Task: inverse folding
């Protein structure tokens, strides 16, 4: 068997990529595939001498034999998969494989002086906001590398299974220098009832699908990882739109600071994701390992929202939080879909949706996903002080106490009933109390932030069974791109 991991998970064109490889074969070679609308072979090595090496611990650098490859200077920014072949053991390409592959990103070189911010050359659109008339701005797609590694069980442990302990800082610790991290390692967690072919918390499950849809539909994003933004916030300086999809759970303070500063300077965000910014991580050992404190006698120090944690609620980043939504991890889940609240909004343009219509109720999987984020909601009071029916929902009058941004616009919501496997506690409510819902909405703070409130948007989008989901995605991307 052959396994590998990159020394650094992203590189620039014209630079060197180091892959650490261990194999019981005497020779191997590697093919680099560029991921677009599926894998596209980009380069293949000659046969190289193989070296066996033992597994390491989950919290340590494995220090496997290193092989260095030159990345051509003309390679476009993309996600690349290094696919390894042992001599005499030919295998077919598999984006969901747990060995014999490694993921890396080729970033674009930074451009200076070409960034455009809100109001610079945009046309005035629906409801008085600035929108763009096409795919003309620079889109940057961010991979959640920290989340991949939080669930990566190479070495027999991760944040969720026998977590290795760190004293300074306190918490669980995992290494970024081991197989896995999107592909090529075992992943902790239950199989997806709707898609058992790829594990959650892997590149194949959500990101590969969303990127494939982007490419098929004429978008040309550039790519980075969350740890790139942590190391160099300037990567966002000339970006018009930052996009994230799937499961974007683990954030460092430096990454969050950079993204919030980006919005404050007029940059736009589109989160087709959920469980957004739920845990804070600390990068240690020259950013080669990460630590997260997820529980103890005084609570979890690295929960973002509570006072016992970071005391910096995630709502202020994306407008929504998992604590107002919920999770359903095992088996088929129930959902009546997203109920449309403001069908005249530009996000719904061309969908034909009317007030109260359900979006994503009959898709496979249900659009309200494995994990959902929401805004705090309440029923609207009816005449005579009585409560309205279930369709009469509004943003809670205590939303500001939950750090919901001023001006947050609720566009659609998918109520999560009592059968959901987790409906978390939050301000003013214990677990399961109050209205929990996936919510789709946006707000503007110099830049505009959109959140779909579900992990599984990419799966519904990619299958093409609901053209309204596709149209909403186009509306959001085209509306938020900057020249």
Result:
């Amino acid at each position: 068997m052959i396994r590998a991991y990159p020394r650094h998970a992203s590189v620039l064109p014209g630079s060197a990529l180091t892959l650490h490889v261990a194999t019981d074969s005497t020779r191997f070679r590697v093919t680099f595939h560029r991921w677009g609308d599926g894998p596209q072979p980009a380069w293949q090595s000659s046969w190289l001498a193989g070296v066996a090496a033992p597994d390491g611990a989950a919290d340590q650098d494995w220090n496997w034999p290193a092989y260095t490859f030159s990345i051509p200077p003309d390679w476009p920014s993309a996600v690349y998969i290094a696919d390894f072949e042992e001599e005499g053991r030919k295998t077919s390409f598999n984006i969901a494989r747990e060995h014999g592959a490694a993921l890396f990103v080729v970033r674009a070189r930074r451009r200076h002086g070409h960034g455009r911010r809100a109001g610079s050359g945009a046309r005035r659109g629906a409801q008085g906001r600035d929108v763009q008339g096409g795919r003309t701005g620079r889109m940057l797609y961010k991979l959640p590398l920290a989340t991949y590694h939080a669930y990566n069980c190479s070495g027999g442990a991760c944040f969720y299974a026998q977590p290795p302990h760190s004293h300074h800082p306190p918490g669980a610790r995992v290494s970024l220098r081991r197989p896995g991290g999107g592909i090529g390692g075992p992943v902790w967690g239950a199989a997806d009832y709707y898609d058992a072919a790829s594990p959650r918390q892997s590149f194949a499950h959500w990101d590969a699908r969303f990127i494939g849809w982007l490419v098929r539909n004429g978008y040309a994003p550039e790519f980075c990882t969350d740890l790139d933004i942590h190391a160099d916030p300037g990567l966002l300086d000339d970006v018009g739109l930052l996009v994230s999809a799937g499961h974007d759970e683990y954030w460092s303070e430096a990454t969050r600071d950079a993204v919030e500063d980006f919005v404050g300077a007029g940059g736009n965000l589109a989160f087709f994701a959920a469980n957004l910014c739920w845990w804070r991580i600390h990068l240690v050992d020259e950013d080669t390992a990460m630590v997260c404190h997820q529980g103890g006698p005084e609570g979890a120090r690295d929960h973002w929202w509570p006072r016992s944690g970071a005391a910096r609620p995630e709502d202020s980043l994306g407008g929504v939080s998992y604590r107002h939504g919920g999770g359903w991890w095992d088996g088929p889940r129930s959902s009546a879909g997203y109920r449309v609240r403001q069908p005249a909004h530009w996000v719904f343009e061309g969908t034909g949706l009317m007030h109260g219509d359900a979006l994503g109720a009959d898709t496979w999987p249900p659009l309200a996903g494995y994990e959902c984020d929401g805004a705090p909601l309440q029923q609207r009071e009816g005449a005579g002080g009585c409560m309205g029916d279930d369709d009469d929902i509004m943003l809670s009058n205590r939303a500001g106490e939950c750090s919901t941004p001023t001006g947050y616009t609720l566009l659609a919501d998918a109520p999560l009933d009592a059968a959901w496997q987790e409906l978390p506690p939050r301000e003013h409510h214990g677990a399961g109390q109050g209205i929990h819902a996936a919510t789709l909405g946006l707000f503007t703070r110099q830049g505009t932030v959109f959140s779909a409130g579900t992990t599984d948007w990419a799966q519904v989008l990619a299958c093409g069974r609901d053209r309204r989901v596709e149209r909403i995605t186009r509306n959001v991307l085209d509306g938020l791109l900057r020249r």
